[in-house]
Write a structure and sequence with these properties.
- The chain has helices at 5-12, 16-24, 41-48, 63-75, 84-90, 103-118, 122-135, 191-205, 208-214, 220-232, and strands at 2-3, 31-33, 36-40, 94-98, 139-141, 144-145, 160-166, 182-187.
- With 239 residues, it is α/β, with parallel strands linked by helices.
- It folds into two domains: 1-48, Multidrug-efflux Transporter Regulator, Chain: A, Domain 2 (Orthogonal Bundle); 79-232, Mannitol-specific EII, Chain A, CATH 3.40.930.
- The strands form two sheets. A five-stranded mixed beta sheet has the order 4-7-8-6-5. It has a three-stranded antiparallel beta sheet with strand order 1-3-2.
- The radius of gyration is 17 Å and the shape is globular.
Length: 239
């Protein structure tokens, strides 16, 4: 799906002026069609997740600091979105010690449990998630991944995030080559909320304190409390 500046501003919940500034600064992927900027929906999703390390070095890629600031801009919103991650996790679950030595085993094993509570077809959702992984691994680096689909939206009013801790960290194809110890399965009700939650999770994963906390494999009540505090400290930035 090709997006115009107006469409993208609405999806990311920022002003058109902000989008134009990012274009001028080379912060966001775009192309020109009839002298007008257009954006690929799939490229924007990948860009939202692009706070990652350079695959070929041990140094942070120069774009990471730019992307990190951009993610803060996207997620720094008050009102109904301020605690969006907290609410999505409240409607989801926290699954510990999920078995599987490979990515696909962990994803399919997790979805089998998730689908039951959400009244979804586990086989269909698993295939959609694996199709997404084949396009590009959904890792955020630092041992964190966000399995999600591009074409499936919940026919509900509440977004859902379920956190999964594999019994052992699994190889995931991450650009920093680190095995994944925590997976955030994301199911959203609309594109705008999907991208917003992706941006918030990317921001969350960029915080060392948050990453250290995940290593303790917190239970749901502990994780909810931590995420609520994390979201409450996100300042409202001007766009």
């Amino acid at each position: 799906m090709d997006l115009k500046i107006k469409d993208l501003a609405e999806l990311l919940n920022v002003s058109e002026t902000t989008i134009r500034r990012w274009l001028a600064e080379g912060k966001i992927p775009a192309y020109r069609l009839n002298h007008q900027f257009r954006f690929s929906r799939s490229e924007i999703e990948d860009w939202v997740m692009s706070c990652r390390m350079n695959k070929n070095t041990d140094k942070v890629h120069p774009d990471v600091s730019i992307q990190s600031d951009t993610m803060k801009n996207i997620v720094a919103k008050s009102g109904t979105r301020q605690f969006s991650l907290y609410r999505a996790l409240h409607h989801g679950e926290v699954l510990s010690d999920v078995l599987g030595s490979e990515k696909e085993q962990v994803i399919r094993g997790s979805v089998k449990k998730i689908a039951q509570s959400m009244n979804l077809d586990g086989d269909v959702i698993s295939e959609l998630l694996m199709d997404r992984e084949r396009l590009m691994p959904t890792s955020l680096n630092y041992g964190i991944a966000v399995p999600h689909t591009r074409d499936f939206l919940l026919q509900e009013t509440n977004d859902v995030v379920t956190v999964v801790y594999p019994q052992e960290p699994i190889e995931y194809g991450a650009l920093d080559n680190q095995p994944v110890h925590t997976l955030f399965f994301l199911f959203a009700c609309e594109d705008k909320r999907h991208l917003h939650l992706l941006a918030k999770l990317a921001h969350f994963a960029s915080d060392e304190k948050c990453r250290d906390f995940l290593l303790t494999k917190p239970k749901k009540i502990e994780l909810l409390k931590f995420i609520k505090e994390f979201e409450s400290k996100i300042p409202a930035l001007a766009t």
